[in-house]
Amino acid sequence: MNTPELNSWQAVRTTFKQIWGYDDFRPPQGEIVRSLLAKKDALIILPTGGGKSICFQLPALLQTGLTLVVSPLVALMENQVQELLQRQQKAALLHNELSTYQRRTILQNLEKQQLRLLYLSPETLLSPPVWEKLCNPTLQINGLILDEAHCLVQWGDTFRPAYRRLGAVRPALLKTKPPGTKISIAAFTATADPAAAKTIQTVLELQQPEIFRLNPYRPNLYPTVRIAWTPRSRKQQLLKFIQNHPQQSGLIYVRTRKDSENLAVWLAEMGYITASYHAGLGAAERRGIEAKWLSGKMPFVICTCAFGMGINKSDVRWIVHFHAPHLMSEYIQEIGRAGRDGKPADVLSLVSEPTGWLDPEDRQRRQFFTQQMRSQQRTAQQLVKRLPQQGEINAVKRQFRDADIALAVLHSSGQLKWVDPFHYTIESGGKYQLGTQSQAAQQMYQYLYTRKCRWQFLLNAFGFDKEAANWRCGHCDNCRNSH
Q: Rounded to two decimals, what is the model's pTM?
């Protein structure tokens, strides 16, 4: 390494210490920062709590110009932006819940090039007023970061179809910028199996990306799965578990808003201070619950997958899946919220017995999930016969209900190409694989009923076969029972 480069790397570390107070990076943070400063494309798969956000925030703050951070949830963006503002950094976020005045102020700051980091959802990024500002030839854009990139795979062809258009963003922006401009793209996630990693690279059109992968193993997480023979037994097991973890911080995951509300009422009747948390609550209400939980005034929250992404609380001692998630990627995300301080944490999943005779709820949930995907697929294939061969998404959406989901499904089956983020061409050929999501759901089911070491199963599921060979963690329920 030559001297100027050495000096500049010293400057990077100095800034890192000034803003975050750390002396040095944890591997592979330093290499990721270097890669992003060199404007290379990257795919980064690091376990939850692995310090991912610093890896893109630091390069963004060190450069003049703007870095766009595309993120799925308002709560997640708010937490990161609040932290950056507390550290006196030039960051902002745009979302639907802002007042007109707040939006106008942020868009003005964007125009005046006063921001280093702008957080927004895929839908906000592609909204006309924001897109128009980003296409200003004088606005310098250094990079596009996709945070929680697994959401592209999990939700891209269902209820967040805008994710499927992100690959067209860079070429469209470059057309509006001076010749020679470089915009890099980096995707960050804690969970991507080999198939998901491939989808992310393809959809985002990453160019020779540097890939950073650490396996998801966390030695301090103790996974257990217990069979609940009846709905009543499921509640009793939950109650017993909570009683065995008094005054400890935890989270209880359920699948629907209704489940979260019903369970919160029942536990409140039992005398517990808790709340139901889901995407249907207003922003102020969600912030209030988060603040109580983060400060320890509320030991646990009953939540859907809307809670916890990017929320950093180090002393979470337990996670219960009152209902198991449909996908392994959700499961790994959600258990990863526990034990970030490195101390032991219990993660429990409650499941029906496999036949579903005594309690068919789990089986019905799985069937509903698969049917939903199948029906979206059918709708898309029926719509394709009526959609114009070439079109503009907003015009088509006005004409056909759910057209954006149909277009996303067609894109994932190789039947559609985005000319730019708003215009498409339907191409013949290509075949939709219902496979990826239903295989992933099947894999989750196998995990819940496996007799193997649970961590070995998870390592295999995420493509770390070498590490998984002859693996025994010694502390999951299956390892403990086999002793």
A: 0.87
